[in-house]
Amino acid sequence: MSEVITIANQKGGVGKTTTAVNLSASLAVDGKKVLLIDIDPQSNATTGLGFNRNNYEFNIYHVLIGRKKLSQIILKTEIDNLSLAPSNIGLVGVEKEFYDNDTRGRELILKHAIDEIKENYDFILVDSPPALGSITINALSAADSVIIPIQCEFYALEGLAQLLNTVKLVKKTINPSLEIRGFLPTMFSTQNNLSRQVFADLQQHFKNKLFVTKNDKAFVVIPRNVKLAESPSFGKPIILYDDKSPGSIAYKDLAKSILAS
Ligand SMILES: Nc1ncnc2c1ncn2[C@@H]1O[C@H](COP(=O)(O)OP(=O)(O)O)[C@@H](O)[C@H]1O
Ligand SMILES: [Mg+2]
Q: Is 17 near ligand 1, meaning CB less than 6 Å away?
């Protein structure tokens, strides 16, 4: 049984791409067959895995406009079990194209594309853009579950109600089986009172939706770790860049938590 997990939060800079890339890599290194779909025009997951987004004639944009099948754009990565469906800045045009052509069933284009290849993978992760437009609706409509990264900083929970409403609406109208897999605290610093406050708020409101480590039942929290910020510039997930770093350990814990539940 394969699972499609969308990483979503309409706020930018909260750790969506970092989570998508590093959770994918950790699951793949754990022996799972993983496809990461980059569906953000900024293409940070594509570049973060070492691909020059301008080198590929076809990308997820061509899938969304019906020109290519997902299987025709998939690239192999440095990690054996991990494949990537790349994105490109050209994807910014897709929402207008949907609108201009009044494309029917446009919310379900990604889902239909995924359905054709779903059985080839154990996990399909979707890295969505910082917005709640058609692209993110496609990503939520295609998903079995959603992971919501929450940056442990100022205004962490601002906008969360809107995101949760969107998830609820998609569940009600398009994708009844959509579940919230969990909230993931990111960029946590122990010395920072605010970080601790945000985490306490998350525990208060969503305790049963936080990820727990397999053995000691601690919560999985992604620390602020400079290695996580550096690794994309080397085109590598953290597990290949610095496997012993706290960031790498945290994403491996997240993968284990997901595999255990
Ligand atoms: N745990 C972390 N520790 C340090 N830097 C991080 C961490 N998570 C993300 N970053 C950095 O913060 C920035 C935003 O993260 P990113 O994953 O791109 O967010 P999003 O995809 O939500 O916009 C990036 O420069 C990234 O490298
Ligand atoms: Mg991103």
A: yes
